[in-house]
Amino acid sequence: MNTYKSRSDVPESEKWRLEDIYSSKEEWEAEITQITQMIEKLKHYDGMISNGSTLLGYLSENEKVSFKFNKVFAYAMLQVDSDTRNTSSQSLQDQVKQLGVKLNAATSFFLPFLLSLEESILKKYIDEEEGLNYFEKQLFETYRYKKHVLSKEKEEVLSQLGEALSSPSHTYGMMNNADIKFGKVTTEDGERVELTRGMYSKLIEHKDRTKRIEAYKAYYQPYLQLKNSIASTLAAAIKNNVTISRIRKYPSALEKALFSDDVPREVYENLIETTKKNIAPLHRYSEIRKEKLGIEELHQYDLSVPLVQDVEQEIPFDKAYDIMIKALAPLGEEYTKTLADFKDKRYIDVRETPGKRSGAYNLGVYGVHPFVLLNHRDNLSSLFTLAHEMGHAMHSHFSHHTQPQITAKYSIFVAEVASTVNEVLLIHYLLQHEENPNMKQYLLNHFIDKFKGTLFTQVMFAEFEMITHEKAENGVPLTSKVFSEIYESLFREYNGDSIVFDEEVQYGWARIPHFYRPFYVYKYATGSASAIHLADRILKGDQDTISAYLEFLKSGSSDYPLELLKKTGVDLTTPEPIQNALQQFAMLVDEFEKM
Ligand SMILES: [Zn+2]
């Protein structure tokens, strides 16, 4: 495997070209100066918009500023992420932050102004100024919030309370990241050390059960100790969601959260109901797990260990890229040719180097191209990460090249579809071309576990959020005991009766940071279910689905997410796509069992 001591050792071909954004730091600085001047200009529109022409003037100028702002932002961010220790890059990022604050201040007048405008007047402005057609949809999209906006005084009160309202989430973050002390575990050398999250994710997959148990106990120890404090922060966060949704006249906290994507409540409920109706294969998988591991009792700490021991394969980056391109062939030449170019054009920063940001992401820069950060390790898991991130990058590329700036950026709701379709196509390709039966079994197991994590587990979390919010809406006090009862009964329902419960299981709610971002995780489940459904059609060679899917990748945010997906044949208001995805899961479990 290629390991590098410093960034300068990495070949140019495996580093991205920031010069594609600005040829030099001087050019970047000149842009900052220009943006600063443009922000001054924007300020002057406050109180001056009184007809179609001034409205257009403001919106056009604002769009130009945001185009440039995104570029200076990206340049600084990518530079910092390639070496977070570099102080001169950090200073670029600080400058962008300050600029962002200025930009926000200069444009903060506009939203209240727009919402205070009579609809008939807005329509009159649009009629008298042709150029406003381009902004029309976005203007009315903002207008959709009008019935949920309060009087000026009330809005001021709420905005002053903003920091206090976000305090439960902030406090939880501090507890969970800064103050938390996990228990001790024994290292390979026999030393007793404090568990870290990084260690936990490895140890809970360890083939030695005593290692798993030790890590499991050490991991949950602080959550058991802090259960009452964490219950209090979570209860406060939920109550805040409920109260704000009432003040803003939403039917419920759930509907407030779904409003921005224009997702009806039924989609959320349908996801949960359909999953629960098709839960049997997951229960069967728990049984298989118990058998395969050859244990008397299946515990929570037995649920993450791979059932087939790692068949480590070295896959160099160039080979990984080739495999990915071949695996994505069902999407057609336009897709694979464009994707092949991304490597040659150096859109990807491949290698792990000291100080580089961990993980992986895609950042689409409108008017330039996508930038992908990897920490590629020449193994199978890195191959999957590559296919995933390139899915995002292709989505950015297609949408940016097809859509005007205003609708170029896709929403989070649809984002994971593009990445997951690639992963599913990849696993199918690998399964088809793998000769070694052990490796095949390993791949299948990997896929089943991933499916479980992105679908079933997320649906379980989504249901937990729904139940707890409803309880708060009905005035039921939320305590550690209440949270634990709900969590434990859901865990049992989803994972089946073959699991023996340790005390720790019920405190799962205490360790999930996503619960402080209400009703968010269901998007992982709808995204992966949609992707699995689509990939199945694509693999069957359904040409209509393939062209509809490519259109979808080009559609950015030109419509609401559910509408965009509908055009690919995925209608999330019906049980069908979720059902199909779950049938796929059942088939995988069958196949795995046969092996
Ligand atoms: Zn992703």
Q: What is the strand arrangement across the widest sheet?
A: 3-5-4
CATH topology-level name of the largest domain: Neurolysin, domain 3
Give the second-level CATH assignment, the architecture of the largest domain: Orthogonal Bundle
- Which molecules other than protein and nucleic acid are bound? zinc ion
Order of SSEs:
HHHHHHHHEEHHHHHHHHEEEHHHHHHHH
Structural class: mainly alpha
Span between termini: 31 Å
The low-pLDDT segments are none
Helix content: 55-70%
Overall 3D form: globular
CATH class of the largest domain: Mainly Alpha
Summarize the SSE layout with pairings.
Elements: H1 25-43, H2 52-82, H3 87-107, H4 110-116, H5 119-128, H6 133-143, H7 152-165, H8 167-179, E1 184-186, E2 192-194, H9 197-203, H10 209-225, H11 227-247, H12 253-259, H13 265-277, H14 280-293, H15 317-327, H16 333-344, E3 348-351, E4 361-364, E5 370-376, H17 380-402, H18 412-433, H19 437-473, H20 480-495, H21 522-539, H22 543-553, H23 561-566, H24 576-594
Helix pairs in contact: 1-2, 1-3, 2-3, 8-11, 9-10, 11-19, 13-19, 14-24, 15-16, 15-17, 15-18, 17-18, 18-19, 18-21, 19-20, 19-21, 19-24, 21-24
Zinc ion is lined by residues 388, 392, 416, 419.
